[in-house]
Every structure is written in C-alpha cells, then in structure tokens.
Design brief:
Length: about 290
C-alpha cells in the first residue's frame, strides 16, 4: 500500500517516516528564512531611526546636504516589507472608492522632540488638504500606491509684502502669494521627496489615486507648545486678484501666472477624517 507523507508518495511506512523528516526540515528552513527576512526588515527601519537620531538635532536646525543625501538614499531603498506592509493586504487590493469621505489612518513608528517617523494610509480618493510645515524639514517616501501631490512655497517667505486683501471677503482676509513647486502624479516605487522650512514645497496637498501608504519623517514634529501647529489653506488662482499695489520686485515672476496662486488660511476642514492605529511593523530600539 502506498503512503503519502509530506507531499511525497512512498511505498512503505519507513519511507513515509523519512519523507516526514524531509518535510519537517523543509518547513524549518522556511521558518528560518522568514525569520531572516523579518530581521532584515527590522534592521532597515532600525538603521533609518538611528540616522534620523543623528541628523535631527532639535528645532532650528536644517539637515546639511550630505545628511539629506544619506537619509534620502536610505528611504529610496525602503520597501513596504521594511515596515510590515505588503501589497497583498486587503487595503491595497481594494480599488473601490469609499462611501462618503474616506478616513485617513496614521501610525507612529517613533516620536521624540527632535523628529517623528509616521506612516499615512490613504484610501482611494482620500485627500490631505493643503497644509504647511512650519520650521520643519520633511522626508516623504511613497511606499505603495499612486497619489497626486500639489505643493507651494511662499514667494517671499520672510515677509507678508506679497499679500493682498480679499475684495470678496467682508472680513478683509489676507491672501498671500505662493509659487507652485509640484503638481504631478506619483506611483510607488518612486524617489523620496524633501521639503524644507522655506523651500521644496512646504505647503502641500495629497490626493490618493489608489489606496496608498507614505512614510513621513518630520524634523522637528508638529508642536503647538513650540508654535509649530498645522495651518490649512485654500488656493485661489492668481488672476482672480489684482496685484496693482504689489512691490515692483514681483514683476519678474508675474510673467508666468500659471505658477502663482493666492493662499488663504482656513480652519481645519470639517470633512477631514483621521484616526490613529498602533504600529505593528518591525520594532525599533532607542537604546
């Protein structure tokens, strides 16, 4: 009588026992390989953490060019598996638009006064409204999915001389002139983006084309106590407001109206839905 053991067909019990041993060895090998992959993943996020701890030395400091290059290169190599994610997860296979306003989920890998490491999960059609990063340097790496990014910098970051009063507002609200930096679609894997306190697209909007995940490194993180609260804006086409009273030094950029817009500060949009979940990826040690 033939006996099947571990997927191997044998003619006697002794052979079945030998096949069972072989099957057990194969299973043990697969477990060892999985452990090695987990250890490699943990090592990647641990190295990223250690680099962030060296680079971000507190409020008021901006990473040096060689430090930016190092962190950017590390994030460029990051894979979803490095933080416990997989394209096979149901969230990323779901291509249907969520009913109502999609909820954005975020999880914190690590946070301290000098920097934070977070992951953002955006369902399809979810939008993180136009917002700023005061005094911050931010690295963003799209790990999975596709998204549209639109970002601006202030035309004059050191003053409000490029502002006008909104003639359509009874409250005489100020509009401030900004220049478009990015307005494009991105699909993972793609290069890491970097924004600085006054350059690189400090005010940006994320719109998910498909379900996507982004790892963000913020240095320093938002802090209301340290006057780094998040401010939201709406962008208004440049041509809708007169600049007759603007300083003459703006004339050289007024030739390209498509790159300019007026930003108006708004309250946090009521439709913005965000929730926090526990980080379940490879742990890091801050020892």
């Amino acid at each position: 009588m033939k006996v099947v053991a571990g997927g191997v067909e044998v003619a006697d019990p002794a052979g079945a026992a030998a096949a069972a041993v072989v099957a057990g060895e194969r299973a043990a090998k697969r477990r060892r390989e999985r452990r090695r992959r987990v250890q490699a993943d943990a090592a990647a996020v641990q190295r990223l953490f250690q680099a962030c701890r060296d680079v971000f030395r507190g409020p008021g400091t901006v990473p040096k060019p060689d430090e930016v290059h190092m962190l950017r290169a590390m994030l460029d190599r990051m894979k979803p598996e490095d933080v416990g994610l997989s394209p096979d997860l149901k969230f990323f296979r779901n291509r249907d638009a969520a009913q109502g306003t999609p909820t954005i989920t975020h999880t914190t890998i690590y946070k301290c006064p000098n920097f934070s490491m977070v992951i953002l999960f955006l369902p399809r059609n979810a939008v993180i409204p136009l917002h700023n990063h005061p005094g911050m340097t931010v690295f963003s790496k799209l790990l999975l999915g596709s998204m549209h990014i639109k970002s601006y910098d202030w035309v004059d970051p050191d003053s409000d001389s490029s502002s006008v009063s909104s003639s359509s507002s009874s409250d005489d609200e100020q509009l401030r002139l900004a220049k478009l930096v990015v307005d494009d679609d991105f699909t993972a894997p793609c290069d890491t983006s970097v924004l600085y306190p006054t350059t690189g697209g400090n005010m940006h909007r994320f719109t998910a084309i498909t379900p996507c995940a982004i790892i963000d490194i913020l240095g320093p993180p938002y802090s209301i106590e340290e006057d780094r609260d998040c401010t939201y804006y709406t962008d208004i086409p440049y041509t809708l407001h007169s600049t007759a009273d603007n300083p003459s030094d703006l004339n050289n950029i007024e030739q390209d109206h498509g790159c300019l817009a007026w930003l108006k500060e708004i309250d946090m949009p009521r439709e913005l839905k965000m929730c926090s979940v526990h980080y379940g990826g490879p742990p890091i040690s801050d020892k």
